[in-house]
Amino acid sequence: MGPGLTASRWAIKKGTRAAVALASPWLSRLAGAARGPVVRVLVYHRVREARREPFSVAPADFDAQMEWLERERLAISADQVAAWIDGGPAPRPGSVLVTFDDGYRDFHAKALPILRRRRIPAVLFVSVAEVRDRRATDAGEESHVTWDELREVLDAGVDVGSHGWDHVSLARIPADEARRQVARARETLRERLGDAAGRDFAYPYGTGGDFDDATREAIAAAGHRCAFTAVHGAVAPGADPLELPRDKVEGGEGLGMFRRIVEGGLDAWAVVDRGLWRLQAERRVRTAGGPVA
Ligand SMILES: [Zn+2]
C-alpha cells in the first residue's frame, strides 16, 4: 500500500472517474455494454481515514454508501449472483454485491460493524498466507485479520473467499505453481473455517494481465464457484463465472459518485482496463512490494 497520491495526480484521477461516470451513457454505447438486466460487483480494499489514498474509503463515506444500499434494497449476496448466472432467479435490476480484497484488519474493525448494522451481504477475499493466529501487540494498521476475526466475519453472515496464497499475480508464475497456490489457499480456508469458506475467488491485482487460461484451470481445479477480476463492467446473464468484472469504489468520492458507479457509471472504464493493464503491470514490477490491489 503506497503513500497517498500527490495533489495533482489525485485531482486528475478523481476528475477522470467523475468525467467517465457523467459520460457513461454515451461511452457504454461505444463500449458495447450489455443490455437487459445486469448486476454489478463493487470492490473495496480498506475502510479508514487516509489522505488522497484511492484504496481507502473513509468510514463515514462507507457508512453513507451502505445506508443508501440498504434503503434502496440493492445489496445481494454472492449466492444470489452465482445462482443467477447459473440460470436461477434474477435479482432486482441494478443490484450490487459488495466485496473487499486483501483482508486488512480495518475490515474487521471498521467495515464489518457497518455491514452488520446495515444488513449488507458481502464477501471478504483474503490473502491466506497473511492471516495470523494472533496479532503482535505492536502490530500497526498494515496488519491483516486473524483467524478468530475471520470466524466472526462468517458468523456475521459475510462470506470469506480466497484472494490466493500470498498475493502474487497468478498469470506471472508457472502454471503448476499457480495451481498449487490456489489449491493450498482454498484447503487452508476450509481447514481453518469450515466448508462455507473459500467458495469464491478474487484474482490478485485482477487486471487483464493477471489471469489467463492456465489460471482459470487452476481456479476450476480447486473447486471455486466464481472468480472475480478487477476489470470494470456489469454482470449479465450467461456471464463467465470465472471472469466476473467488478467496479472499484475509491476514497474521496461522495455519495453522488457512488450512486453513479452503482448505476453503471464506470462500466465504460473497461476500455481503459483493457488498454492500461500492460502499463500497470510494468509499474508493479518496478515497485514490487506488499499487496497494492
Ligand atoms: Zn488484492
Architecture per CATH nomenclature, i.e. the level-2 architecture: Alpha-Beta Barrel
In CATH, the homologous superfamily goes by the name: Glycoside hydrolase/deacetylase
CATH topology: TIM Barrel
Secondary-structure element order, N to C? HHEEEHHEHEHEHEHEEHH
- CATH class category: Alpha Beta
The number of distinct β-strands equals: 9
Low-pLDDT windows of residues? 286-291
Strand order of the largest sheet: 6-5-4-1-9
Number of domains: 1
Give the helix level as a range of percent.
40-55%
Termini distance?
8 Å
Shape: globular
Helix- and strand-based class?
A: alpha/beta
Helix count from the secondary structure assignment: 10
Bound molecule kinds, no repeats: zinc ion
> What is the percentage of strand-forming residues?
5-15%
Q: What do the pLDDT scores average to? A: 88
Radius of gyration over C-alpha positions, nearest whole angstrom? 18 Å
Largest sheet: 5 strands, parallel
